[in-house]
Design brief:
- By secondary structure, the chain is an all-alpha fold.
- The protein is built from 18 helices and no strands.
- The protein has a single domain, classed as Up-down Bundle (Growth Hormone, Chain: A), CATH 1.20.1250.
- The longest helix is centred in the middle third of the chain and has 33 residues.
Length: about 400
């Protein structure tokens, strides 16, 4: 599609308004970040260890990765709107299950079911690609995720304040109410944009090799996977560092977790502003370099003995800036490899990204529990971000070779 279709707010006959797309994606970000400051209190409430309670992060990510393998193909077949509404309904029910869970096992079961909310992030990107071409999609995704970044700026602060005032269950009441409101908005505003109604579900899985054999698809996926993986490692180890190493309260932990989100909003703004001008590959390379530089600077400061909560979390804003450049542009790239499989590409790409993130979050949590402290977390993130930079450099090298051959 070469031009953006008309959009009217609260009109189910047109594509969803950008505000709706922001909130669809933001609900998943809120679900991931709002409860993080409450993790130490939840560990105490359920009488378990931090590495078990941390499965609420890594296990959730793993479940999300598996779910996203099917969300994309199903939405290509049955439509974006239907899948969005069903998944939001499951999320609300699962959130209520978390509130009333009596054991950590039951809580973690419902926490895994909460992964249904991840449909909002996958499908908001696929909807954008349904509407506009590649570079414009990168720009629009940048604006969508810039707005989405506002959610994890404030959600941990709200979660930390609610935890201190009313206990950890109040954080999940906040999520359930927010989910109900956003589901109502999607029902009223989200028109159908999918075009894959005539393709069977099995046929779309058979089309996976068309994506998996593309070097360009893998380059974009790995660039995004390593960028997001560094952030998920931060989510896995950050709560332990904040509460144990720096002794921060739930509220102030929430404030610190907002630092990468501030940077992410800035990076998303630059993606929206400059992706069309400079192209997606240039933006991804710049973002990967900025993220790596931020983590290496933080590591150097920690190694010379000047580590503090302000410096540790403050420099993570550079990781946010880099991710804000990498993720929307890499997402637009992976969706544009095969435009007729946009939903499948979004789900498969997100599954690879988040599956890797789940492993890194679990690894970082175990490193924290093992006494590695913030240095271990920074080393894990440095290695991850370096691999992300190599991934986009390979894509650029390969494209230059193809151009010279032609």
């Amino acid at each position: 599609m070469n031009s953006r279709p008309p959009v009217r707010f609260f009109d189910r006959t047109t594509p969803p308004h950008i505000v709706t797309l922001v909130l669809m994606a933001g609900l998943g970000a809120m679900n991931m970040s709002a409860f993080l400051p409450a993790l130490p209190d939840m560990t105490e409430h359920f009488g378990t260890s931090y590495d078990v309670m941390q499965l609420a992060v890594s296990g959730y990510l793993a479940a999300t990765a598996v779910l996203q393998l099917v969300i994309g193909p199903i939405s290509d077949r049955y439509g974006r709107r239907t899948i969005t509404l069903y998944c939001q309904g499951i999320f609300i029910a699962a959130t209520l299950g978390c509130i009333y869970a009596q054991t950590v096992e039951v809580f973690l079961l419902f926490r895994m079911l909460q992964c249904a909310v991840a449909a909002g992030l996958v499908l908001s990107r696929a909807i954008v690609r349904d509407m506009v071409p590649q570079n414009e999609a990168a720009s629009m995704i940048g604006y969508v995720t810039m707005g989405m970044a506002l959610v994890p700026m404030v959600a941990p602060m709200i979660g930390g304040a609610l935890d201190e005032a009313f206990g950890w269950q109040s954080v999940f009441w906040f999520l359930a109410i927010g989910g109900a409101l956003i589901m109502t908005l999607c029902w009223a505003d989200q028109g159908e944009t999918g075009t894959g109604g005539g393709i069977s579900f099995a046929r779309q899985f058979h089309d996976y090799p068309e994506l998996l054999t593309s070097r360009r698809f893998w380059g974009y996926v790995l660039s995004a996977a390593f960028a997001s993986g560094s952030f998920f490692a931060f989510l896995g180890g950050g709560p332990y560092v904040a509460s144990v190493e720096f002794g921060l309260s739930s509220f102030w932990s929430g404030v610190c977790f907002g630092a990468p989100a501030v940077g992410y909003a800035v990076g998303n703004y630059f993606s929206g502003r400059f992706s069309v001008r400079f192209g997606i590959n240039w933006m991804i390379r710049a973002g990967a370099a900025i993220s790596l530089a931020g983590v290496l600077t933080t590591l150097a400061i920690a190694l010379v003995g000047y580590n503090s909560a302000l410096l540790f979390f403050g420099f993570f804003s550079f990781v946010g800036v880099g991710n804000g450049l990498v993720i929307p542009n890499a997402s637009a790239g992976m969706l544009s490899v095969r435009p007729h499989l946009a939903g499948t590409a979004s789900g498969l790409g997100s599954a690879i990204m988040i599956g890797g993130g789940a492993a890194l979050a679990a690894f970082a949590g175990a490193a924290m529990q093992g006494g590695g402290g913030s240095i271990s977390l920074l080393l894990i993130m440095s290695a991850t971000l370096f691999l992300g930079l190599l991934s986009i450099l390979y894509v650029i090298l390969r494209e230059n070779q193809l151009l010279s051959e032609n």
